[in-house]
Amino acid sequence: MLDQALSRQLRRIVGETHYRDDQEALVAHSYDGTPMLQSLPDGVIYPENTLQVAEIMKELAAHRVPLVTRGSGSNLCGGTVPVQGGVVMVMHRMNRILDIDLENLTAVVQPGIITAEFISHIESLGLFYPPDPSSMRISTIGGNIAECSGGLRGLKYGTTKDYVIGLEAVLASGEIIRTGGKLMKDVAGYDLTKLLVGSEGTLAVITEATLKLVPPPKSKKTMLAMYKDLYGAARTVSRIIEAKIIPATLEFMDNPTIRVVDDFAKLGLPRDMEAILLIEQDGDPEPVERDMDRIREICESERADRVEVAQSREHAEKLLTARRSAFTALARLRPTTILEDATVPRSRIADMVLRINDIARKYDVSIATFGHAGDGNLHPTATTDARDPEEVHRVEQAFEEIFEAAIEMGGTITGEHGVGLVKAPFLEWKIGRAGVDVMRGIKQAFDPHNLLNPGKMFAKETRKRVVINRG
Predict the structure, then answer these.
(1) 342: burial class by Cβ within 10 Å (0-12, 13-18, 19+)?
(2) Which of 80, 176, 298, 440 is disulfide-compatible with 70, CB 3.0–4.6 A?
(3) CB 372 within 8 A of CB 150
(4) pTM for this prediction
(5) Residue 40 β-bridge partners
(6) Burial 407-445 (b: 16+ CB within 10 A, else e)
(7) Maximum C-alpha span of the chain
(8) Is pLDDT above 50 for 467?
C-alpha cells in the first residue's frame, strides 16, 4: 500500500471516489489481455483532466512511486501489468472529443475515448478515421497511440502513427509538453509526436491527441478468394501489390482459423481450404470495379478454388466481422489463448506460415495463423491451458523459434502489439545492443527515475538466440 500521506494527496487531487486501493480495484487492474501475467498495483486513480494528471505525477515523482497508464486493458504484450506495483492511472474519465475542425480536417480528443465510438462519430459527420484495430470496440484512442495500433485497413491507409499529428503529454516530473498541432508541416526540432506514438507509456502520459481525418471512400467492394494451395494464396498477395493495386484490406486465414471462425460465425466457409484471402477495395466506383476485376483475374490465375464477391454491404460486413472475430473464435477452444504477432516481408508469408506449422509440430502444440497479409503482419495464435506448465513451456519455446524465424526472413518480433513485458527479452534480437542502448538513453532523458511503466520494453536479460533445427 502507498504511504497514507500520499494516498490523502491523491484523493485530494481527484476526489474521494476517484482514487481506490480496495482489493477489488487492485485485482481488477492487476492484469490485461495478455494471459498468465498478473501483478497487484498499490492504488488505482481516475483523473478527469490534464492538470490533475500533472499534479498526480508531481506527487508520485516526489515519492518515487511508479505509474502505469491504462485504457481498457486490451493490451496483448503485458504492457499495462503493474509489475513493480505503484499506481495504475485509468484514463476513461478523460473521454471527450474536444474539437472537430472541418476546415483543417482534424479532431482533438482525450485519450480515454473508445476507438469505435470515435470512428462512428467521425463517420456521422461524413469524415473518415482509418485506423481500425480488431479491439476497437473496447480499446481507447490513448491505448492505440501508446501501442501504435494497426488494423485491417493498415495496408492502404497506414497505422495510428500516420494520423497523430499533435499531442499533449505529461512528463514523469509533472511538466506538460505539447508537440505538433493542426499542421501538415512542422520540422521544428526532433519529431516528439512520432517518438511518443508507440512508446507504450514509458516516456510520458498522453492527455490529448490531435488526429488527422480524411474524406471517406465513395464505394467499397469485398471479395473472398479460397485456396487449396497455401503458396497460391501467398503469390496472389504479392501479385496484387506488383500490379500496383493497394487494397483497403488484404487479410489471410489458414485452415485451422477458417474452421473455428466458421463454427463461430456460421458463414458456410469451405473447411477444406488451406487459406482464404479476404480482400476489400474502396475509393471512387470506377477504379474500385477495375481493381476488383483485376484482383479476380490474379486470384484465378493463381488457382484460387473459388472467388466470391459480397453481394451486399451487409454480407461484406459479416465477412469483415468474421475476420475480426478470429481471436474470439479461437479462444473458445481451450482455456488459454496466446495471440502473438510477427511480421515478415509479404513475399515470405507462405514460408512463414509453413515454418509456423513446422514449429508447432516440433513442439506438439496447436497454433492457428491469421493476419494482415498485405503488410506481412501475421498472428500465430496458440490455444493451450495455463494449468499445464509443461505444455505452456512448449508453447513459449515455439514462439521463441517463431520470432527467430521472422527475423531470419527480414521481419520483426512485433508488427502492432508492442514490446511490453512479453517481447522485451527479444528486443535486442531485432535492433541490436547499440539500438537498445540508444532507446535506454531516450528513456533516461524523459524519465530519469524510471517511474513510467517500469519493467517494460527493456528486459533484465536478453533471451539467448534459438538454434533452429532445419533438418
Answers:
(1) buried
(2) 80
(3) yes
(4) 0.94
(5) none
(6) bebebbbbbbbbbbbbbbbbbbbbeeeeebeebeeebee
(7) 72
(8) no
